[in-house]
Every structure is written in structure tokens, then in C-alpha cells.
Amino acid sequence: MTLTRRLFAALAATTLLAAPALATELQAVRDAGTIRVGMLVDFPPFGIQDASGTPDGYDADVAKALAEHLGVEAQIVPVTGPNRIPYLLSGQVDVLVASLGITAERAERVDFSIPYAGIAIGVYGGTDVAVAGPEDLDGKSIAVARASTQDTGVTEVAPEGTEIRRFDDDATAVQALMSGQVQTIGLSNVVFSQISGVAGDRFDKKFDLSSQVQGIAVAPDSDALLEEINAFVTAAREDGRLDTIHEKWLGEPLPDFVKTDQ
Amino acid sequence: MYRFNFQPVFDNLDMLAHGAWLTVQLSSLAMAIGLVVSVLGAVAKTSGIKPLRWIVDAYVEVIRNTPFLIQIFFIFFGLPALGISMSHNTAALVALVVNVGAYGTEIIRAGIESIPQGQIEAGRALALSPVQIFRHVVLKPALRNIYPSLTSQFIYLMLTSSVVSVISATDLAAAGADLNARTFASFEIYLVLTVLYFLLALGFSTLFATLRRVFFDYPAGR
Known about the structure:
The structure holds two protein chains of two kinds. Chain A is an alpha/beta fold. Chain A has eleven helices and eleven strands. In chain A, strands 1, 4, 5, 6, 7, 8, 9, 10 and 11 form a nine-stranded mixed β-sheet that branches. Chain A starts with a helix and ends with a helix. By secondary structure, chain B is mostly helical. Helix content of chain B is 78%, strand content 0%. The mean pLDDT of chain B is 92. The chains are: A alpha/beta, B mainly alpha. Chains A and B meet through strand 9 and helix 7 of A and helix 4 and helix 8 of B.
């Protein structure tokens, strides 16, 4: 399985390297009157499909705002995690507003805008549990989804006396927190925003573990387009448009670690 | 060709051994307590007291007609809402006992009902007390009759205990999953896990065979 997958990845990589990535001209987008936006539809609340099957979510709203900024229509193309970059590089979409985390490896293949969203991993717990930093986890129980980023993060910083309880997924770990079986939990702000909708203000954030910002991606050498996208993100971060969209989907304004990241 | 690398497994044998030990503890305790529950359940079911029979009937039906996964979730996540909170390993034990108790009740009931009425009457004719009759004339031959089904249910219980990792109990399956998450040597780890579970099952079968020779090795009369 690993072998086939590797082979596939290698094949895909050579094909993509061989074919020159198709840069997108800003003028071409304006002339067409539509911008084709690749977006995930299986990554709530960033990308989902609504009851009628239309793409929706944080990314969809950002895509629409971007199209409005450019004075064109947004045509949303559903993509998946593994194929989103190939979609962009082969010119099937003009931009990706696809919750694409900005990493050094990806930055070699695509050009990123300044961050428009972000996911932060942190430790959360009951409001009555006193934890200010990793050292306070000593003697306390913490739930994590096995093998998740949270698991790695918590395992790294937790002192010897921490009782790390590993569950199969976030949902079960959250269930353990809600039913009082654990005192704290390692979780992303995205999932936490969903549970605070259910549990009200019984839980709050204790400290951050790590964060990952996401950018809008364009094919290399689409400089004019990228510049315009950056202008859009900067404006939307400042005038509160992104805050409003973030509030709508994640229950809180755009986090500071995204806003301050250039 | 897949290149096997058992190094991560050998480096973490203590972790797997720890998990295997918890699996053994959990299963043996669940078998012992489950046997008691089963006998009590079977007695209640074969007794003439109707309300008691209804309660046991309901228990057996509910447990035998719902998945174990749901039962363990209910005990671990649901009961705290009613004020009953147990640690993960205790909740795992309780879930296993409750589960095997229901199956055991039915198996032992079948055993008790297989005892011919004449045998009980023979006991009475020998002036045995009701307790003596139950112990020597009914229960022991009953257990002997259903011994293979009961012990295979127990082995199955040991294998089912691999599910308890879902509530973060630290049994053998959980140790394997944690190790897998850290080293990604999935195939090697699950191969070793398979062997370990097989050996555990073999160990329990040997134990049961020995117990059978000790307690039930007498000629069957009909």
C-alpha cells in the first residue's frame, strides 16, 4: 500500500514538474468575469455542502468576498485534500481557498497570500480547572485523539505526572471531557468552537500548543492576481469582513495569530 | 516488497507487555465476576419468582441485542450524567462483566434446564437439602454440560476486551494503537498483536482444559 502510494506520489510529482504550472493572469480572470475557486467541501466548518449540495462554509464566504473584491463571479469547484494543489497547478482552478496550511514544502509549489484563516491547537478544560501552562498539567488528566497533532503536542510538553488519555477521535475525546471523565483536553480551536456551542461557557482555553495559518494559493508567477488577493485579505482583515465570516462559522472573530501574521 | 522492521516493536515490548497484562487482568476478573452474575441470573431465570425472571429477561435481552461498543460508551460516557462515574479501566471491567453476564446467564440456564427432573428427585430421595441439591445435583452437572460453550464465550470475552481502548483503557489493543501512532510500523505491530492475542487465547483454553479435568472429570451417567 505504502509502495503504491509512493509510486503514485512520485508519478504525480514528475508529471507536475514536467508540465509547466499554468500561471493565472489577473486580466484573464477579469475578462472571463468569473474566478474559479477550488475549495474543500468535507472540512467543516471551513468547507461544507449545504442541504442542497451547494458548497458553503468559511472558505465559500471568503471566496465570494474575494470575487466581489475583484468584481467577478465566484465559481466554486469542489476539490479534495490530496488533489487541490494539482487542480491549481494544472489550471483547472484560478485560486485555492481550500484551508491550505502554509508550509515551506507547499510554498515551493504554489504562491500563498497572507493568511486568511488559521487553526490553533490548544489545551482546553473546565473553567474551574486551574491550568495556566504545561507544568500545571501534572497530576491532571487530559484527553487527546490518538496520533493527532494534539497528541504529539501534548505528549511533548506534558510533565511526567500527566495522565494522557488517548481516544480514537476528537468526538470521543470531547465526549470524555463533557461527561467529566477527564479534566482537560487537547483540541483545535475549530472543534472547540463547535463544542462551546453545545456546552456553553463550561470550558475555556488554558494555553496554546501550536498554530497553523492558512493562505489563499495561486499558481506560481500569477503575481498581479496574488497582489490583488493580498490587497483583499489585508482590507478584509482590517474592515472586519473576515471577522464577521469567522464569527458566523466559528463563533469568534478571526484569531489574533492570523491577523498579525504577514 | 514490503520491508519488515520489527525494531519499533522490540524497542517497546514493555509497553505491549504492560497492555497484555491489563488485558489478562481485565478478562480474568470479568470472567470470574461474570460467572457469578451468570449463575445468579440463571437461578433467577429458572426460579418460579416472576418479577425476578422479568428483570433478568430484560437484562439479557437488552445486552444480547445491543452492540458491545454502545454498551461501553453508555457506561463510560452516559452513566456520569446519572452521577455514576468510574475510571476508564473500571468502566471497562464493568462493561465486560455486564456483557458476559448476559450471555453466561443464557448458557447456564440452558445447562440447568438440561438436568432431568428425575435427577433432582433422586437428590430429594437421598434427603439432600435444597442447597445441596442445587450445588451438587443441579449446578455442577449443569456447568459440566455447558462447559464448552461457556468457556468459548469467555475466550470471546477476552478477544472482545480489545474494544475497551475506545474509552482510553490501556489494554493490549490500546498499547498497539499508541505504538502504531508513534512509529507507523502498523503491519509489524498488528502482526505481533495477533500473535499475542492468539497466545493469550491459547493460554486461557489450556487453563480451562485443566479446570475441566480437575472439576468435571468423572464419568457421565445417563
